[in-house]
Amino acid sequence: MQIYSWNVNGIRSAHQKGFLEWLHARPRPSIVGLQETRAEREQLSEDLESPDGWLSHFVSAQKKGYSGVGVYTSAKPNDVVTSLGRPEFDDEGRAILTRFGELDIWNVYFPNGSGKNRDLSRIPYKLDFYAHLLESLKPQIDSGGRVLVMGDFNTALSEIDLARPKGNEKTSGFRPEEREALQLWLDAGFVDTFRHQHPDAEGHYTWWSQRKGVRERNVGWRIDYILASPAAHAYVESAQIHADVMGSDHCPISVSVKPEIAGDFNWSF
């Protein structure tokens, strides 16, 4: 069973670049979480809203053309939750939970710390978001819940996770306070699925600037993650970064998990 996460940097733009062809090529069962969809549901074409063989759920921001998340599933979830319980977070359409039996999958677009003028003014909001979501999940983690949190975390955790760490120490996404906020997730028990399987692998990135030649030279950042609670991680078989997939300034990431991660949930459509 495959679970994918992808910041598509605008689902309608990704659609024009072959997103649906990529989606329909996914094995079954699969779950595909998207971030930065930047569209309201009524703005989606029918083939994006209801692709053949897939169910979809979307959350949009109040501000048009901004943020937003979506999930495509090849099986019907038991429950879908679209609120974090804080209006200032919910208004930006940043999270959606799909529940499959004993498995909770959070698809999240974590905030960027840069303001309109790259002035770092959004860092307090970003840190508050990190802390609030982690705090809400801690009881479930501590009690042995099976939880995956996937998405664009907008933070590179370690020097190995970006091509030019020294030149970005004061840049949002690699500042000490942001890295510390992400480290708290690991300290709470979450497992970075890709880094767990590839502890020393360098040059594996998930986002590249759109400046000419940057992606070709692989001058990137690993800021997209699938984190697993200890109970969920026991069912993870592999974790991958699909850097060859185009269509966005991010690439998809995925984990392969045993279907039993959801207990006796029926994965048929």
TrEMBL record:
<feature type="site" description="Important for catalytic activity">
    <location>
        <position position="224"/>
    </location>
</feature>
<dbReference type="InterPro" id="IPR004808">
    <property type="entry name" value="AP_endonuc_1"/>
</dbReference>
<feature type="site" description="Interaction with DNA substrate">
    <location>
        <position position="250"/>
    </location>
</feature>
<feature type="site" description="Transition state stabilizer">
    <location>
        <position position="154"/>
    </location>
</feature>
<dbReference type="InterPro" id="IPR020848">
    <property type="entry name" value="AP_endonuclease_F1_CS"/>
</dbReference>
<feature type="domain" description="Endonuclease/exonuclease/phosphatase">
    <location>
        <begin position="5"/>
        <end position="250"/>
    </location>
</feature>
<keyword id="KW-0464">Manganese</keyword>
<dbReference type="InterPro" id="IPR005135">
    <property type="entry name" value="Endo/exonuclease/phosphatase"/>
</dbReference>
<feature type="binding site">
    <location>
        <position position="250"/>
    </location>
    <ligand>
        <name>Mg(2+)</name>
    </ligand>
</feature>
<dbReference type="GO" id="GO:0008081">
    <property type="term" value="F:phosphoric diester hydrolase activity"/>
</dbReference>
<keyword id="KW-0479">Metal-binding</keyword>
<feature type="active site">
    <location>
        <position position="109"/>
    </location>
</feature>
<feature type="active site" description="Proton acceptor">
    <location>
        <position position="250"/>
    </location>
</feature>
<protein>
    <submittedName>
        <fullName>Exodeoxyribonuclease III</fullName>
        <ecNumber>3.1.11.2</ecNumber>
    </submittedName>
</protein>
<keyword id="KW-0460">Magnesium</keyword>
<keyword id="KW-0378">Hydrolase</keyword>
<dbReference type="GO" id="GO:0003677">
    <property type="term" value="F:DNA binding"/>
</dbReference>
<feature type="binding site">
    <location>
        <position position="249"/>
    </location>
    <ligand>
        <name>Mg(2+)</name>
    </ligand>
</feature>
<dbReference type="GO" id="GO:0003906">
    <property type="term" value="F:DNA-(apurinic or apyrimidinic site) endonuclease activity"/>
</dbReference>
<dbReference type="GO" id="GO:0046872">
    <property type="term" value="F:metal ion binding"/>
</dbReference>
<feature type="binding site">
    <location>
        <position position="7"/>
    </location>
    <ligand>
        <name>Mg(2+)</name>
    </ligand>
</feature>
<dbReference type="GO" id="GO:0006284">
    <property type="term" value="P:base-excision repair"/>
</dbReference>
<dbReference type="GO" id="GO:0008311">
    <property type="term" value="F:double-stranded DNA 3'-5' DNA exonuclease activity"/>
</dbReference>
<feature type="binding site">
    <location>
        <position position="154"/>
    </location>
    <ligand>
        <name>Mg(2+)</name>
    </ligand>
</feature>
<dbReference type="Pfam" id="PF03372">
    <property type="entry name" value="Exo_endo_phos"/>
</dbReference>
<dbReference type="InterPro" id="IPR036691">
    <property type="entry name" value="Endo/exonu/phosph_ase_sf"/>
</dbReference>
<comment type="similarity">
    <text>Belongs to the DNA repair enzymes AP/ExoA family.</text>
</comment>
<feature type="binding site">
    <location>
        <position position="152"/>
    </location>
    <ligand>
        <name>Mg(2+)</name>
    </ligand>
</feature>
<feature type="binding site">
    <location>
        <position position="36"/>
    </location>
    <ligand>
        <name>Mg(2+)</name>
    </ligand>
</feature>
<feature type="active site" description="Proton donor/acceptor">
    <location>
        <position position="152"/>
    </location>
</feature>
